[in-house]
Amino acid sequence: MIANSLNSDEYNAYYDRYLQKIPGNLELGILLLENKEEFLRLLDKIKPEDLTYSYAEGKWSVAEVIQHLIDVERIFQYRSLTLAREPGIRLPGFDHDAYVPMSSAQNRTLKSFKKEFKAVRDSGISLYQSFSEEMLVRKGFVSGSATSCRALGFISAGHTKHHIELFKENYNII
Question: What's the predicted TM-score (pTM) here?
């Protein structure tokens, strides 16, 4: 499945902002792998002392953003698995702003973030590769919107790309 094969009825229009950030001609597994490598290269440029940096009052620290990405990966993988196994299900949303302060991200090391992101993303790649074509197009409702299993995988990659760009623009991580 490639991103430009998604139909607008497979996801909430809010996620267009993430989907526009990814190449439309890559198969989902390859996209997630390349996206993982890009993010890990960015993490290699971060120094441990950068983890507490926040570019403005009230904005997340580097550590909190990384933890947010890991949390979203896990949640979207759960959603994908659930839609693949139980089409038509209605899944609630989650408040990412409530998750971040409860994460204790400030107590984590850069090494632990790298290890966890890699493990979680690799798990997601395996998950999506395990799905049949039929499973990938199964839909349910996420936060009240019709959503397909495959759309969540593409959105995950776009969400990571979005934060890579924000790291470069706002956190001065090149």
Answer: 0.95
